[in-house]
Design brief:
Helix content is about 35%, strand content about 15%. It is built from twelve helices and eight strands. It has an eight-stranded parallel beta barrel. The protein is globular, with a radius of gyration of 18 Å. The chain starts with a strand and ends in a 16-residue tail after the last helix.
Length: about 280
């Protein structure tokens, strides 16, 4: 099965033509796509009441990909607000219970920062993370190209298979050490994740620019680029049971439109989506 969605549900104006209130956007979103990434979990471990609300607002077949908290992946600068890493991971796992109990957790996404390079201590940390997460399905996404240079690419993939990490394949600008190539290999027979970050090579690494976060994902995939990916997605689907696609190119509001284009290109008709509001004008 191929599941397509976007990252977050709040900022996709093309999905909400009737000035949908923020509290109702997820209900409307679930009428368009069968999956979503919970990116708010990256900034703060969410209380269970939030997850329970989101679970109850979506159809039975809807699935969530929950982004790992920034303290777990080394993004957070300064002091961690937990007594230990174990306590932090425990709090995060507890926040996932509503998804798990209702069979709506597709996976947790561990996206590591550009400075998380290939070295022994980081490999050991990945082993520790996977052990702490127990049998919760977890995807792994790198942002430092050292993991996939020719010398180590196969070793990285073999390590991910051994540790049972789901591969998060990326389409992103190629602009030095802080970006990774698209590696079209699965590491699990059950699931693979593909995330589309756009190809704005000029905005990808300009961290000192005032509006860097706004332009970083400013990109709209054209039809030819999506067609090339459609062929690659079919190939991935032959080697794993479920393929999850997330469009993250939303600085200009393009993610939802590109996701819908991909659904059309792959000729997918989802069943069990939420009822959608009627657009009267």
């Amino acid at each position: 099965m191929i599941y397509i969605g976007v990252t977050g549900w709040g900022d996709h104006d093309s999905l909400y033509p009737n000035l949908t209130s923020s509290r109702d956007k997820l209900k409307e979103y679930a009428g368009h796509f069968p999956i979503v990434e919970v990116d708010t979990a990256f900034y703060a471990i969410q209380p269970q009441r939030n997850a329970l609300k989101w679970v109850n607002e979506t159809p039975e077949s809807f699935q969530f990909i929950v982004k790992a908290y920034q303290g777990m992946t080394g993004h957070q600068r300064g002091e961690i607000l937990f007594a230990s890493n174990q306590e932090m991971f425990q709090a995060f796992k507890e926040s996932l219970e509503p998804y798990i109990v209702n069979n709506k957790l597709a996976m947790v996404l561990f996206q590591f920062p550009p400075w998380f390079d290939l070295r022994k201590e980081n490999v050991n940390y990945l082993r520790w993370c996977k052990k702490e997460m127990n049998d919760i399905p977890c995807a792994l996404e790198f942002r430092h190209q050292s993991w996939f240079i020719p010398k180590y690419r196969q070793q990285t993939l073999s390590f991910m298979k051994e540790e049972q990490w789901i591969h998060s394949i990326c389409d992103e600008p190629q602009s030095g050490e802080g970006s990774i190539p698209t590696v079209l290999e699965t590491t699990s027979s059950e699931k693979v994740l593909v995330r589309f970050h756009g190809r704005n090579v000029h905005g990808w690494q300009k961290r000192n620019a005032e509006n860097w976060r706004e332009v970083r994902y400013l990109y709209r995939y054209n039809e030819q680029e999506l067609k090339e990916w459609a062929s690659q997605i079919h190939s991935l689907a032959e080697s794993t049971k479920d393929v999850y696609l997330l469009f993250n190119n939303n600085s200009g509001g393009d993610a939802a439109d590109n996701a819908k284009q991909m659904i059309q290109l792959l000729r997918i008709e989802y069943e069990g989506l939420a009822p959608r509001q009627l657009d009267l004008f």
